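Interim report, section 4.2 (structural modelling).
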Amino acid sequence: MSPGADAPGGGRVYRVHWVPGTDTLRGICHCGAQRLAEEPVALWQWLLDHPRGHHLPTVPAADPTGRQAVPA
Amino acid sequence: MEFARDQWYVAAHGVEVGRDLLARTVLGEPLVLYRTGAGEAVALADRCVHRRFPLSQSRLDGDTVVCGYHGFTYDPTGACVFVPGQQRIPRTARVAAYPVVEQDSLVWVWIGDRERADPATIPRAPWLADPRYAVVRGMAPLDARYGLLVDNLMDLSHETYLHGGYIGTPEVADTPITTEVDEDRGVVHVSRHMDDAECPPFYARSTGIQGRITRWQDIEYHPPCLYLLHSRIAPQGVYPPAEGEDSAAFHAEIVYAITPSTAHSTYDFWAVARDFAVDDESVSAYLHQSNHTVVMQDVAALNVLERVIAAEPERYQELSINIDTGGLAARRLLARLVGSGTVGAPR
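Predicted structure of the assembly:
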């Protein structure tokens, strides 16, 4: 499946790739927008905020914010 | 801890349900399961309507259950067909009968609004009933909330540390994952493809592979209950052909059904289906013993975690890193099913 493509059944698919050799995650929205992040919580928040902040197909790396505490 | 009630849950392996009465508690509802003479699995409320005596501690008479306390007798629909000492059966004398579907060797029950019970929505695990596969299975009760088992299974990097010597090797924790969430189907996929890995005893002894392996782990989680791990094991550097059967590899389909029993206890149904050495009983015995050991390592750890969480102050701040990407997605989908729609762990 190519980045940003919908699922075979036409569903919306979010993808997060862990960039090999790095600590970086690449999030890909079903709309094609992308973002880099250093931890998954903020990345999921951005993905699920679609379409807010998803205007460009490719978004430069977000500022690494380090590891965040997650509300349990 | 809230449950997603309008969902199908595994209440038993099919082989557990027979002509003996089986007690299970699913989403806090006590059930009694049995099989009719015609072979149909039945799930009734496990409390006699009269004085609450557990029907699971009673007896079967044909297809009816006779309460072991005063003899109230129920048919497979839950209707009372006999009460002691009088002819009139009170109109309210019945117990709940829950929708049951037996599929892929698993007995699924629906606890919520029965009008919404659609058997077509039950996720499949076809290997468990496929004669081309050999299957070993078991069930372990956890004294821990179901969310802890979901967390555990969605992040297999713990294999390296908790299951070393069985299924864990250094490469599991060291290999980056890819996570996909199919938002509309409500399925989470987590893939970890190890190109050059040590072969853990679980696979070395069962496949006979000597030396290093190419090991793929592809998780498919269908919240809330069904977790599938497609495990591909091959000699190092052997990949699937562009076309045709992947016959040079060994495939294990590892299935977990995660069924909340109460807010703080869970049924961990597990099965390992394999497409190799299917007639070798010694491999079956080894994989059964090994996976049982692995499951009990998880049970011990999660029981400890449950006690820790139960004793901790409110609003404890946990930490998530890259390995948790899939687990966070699973939590969100679970929370969506429960109805809160938040990213935080269901508590």
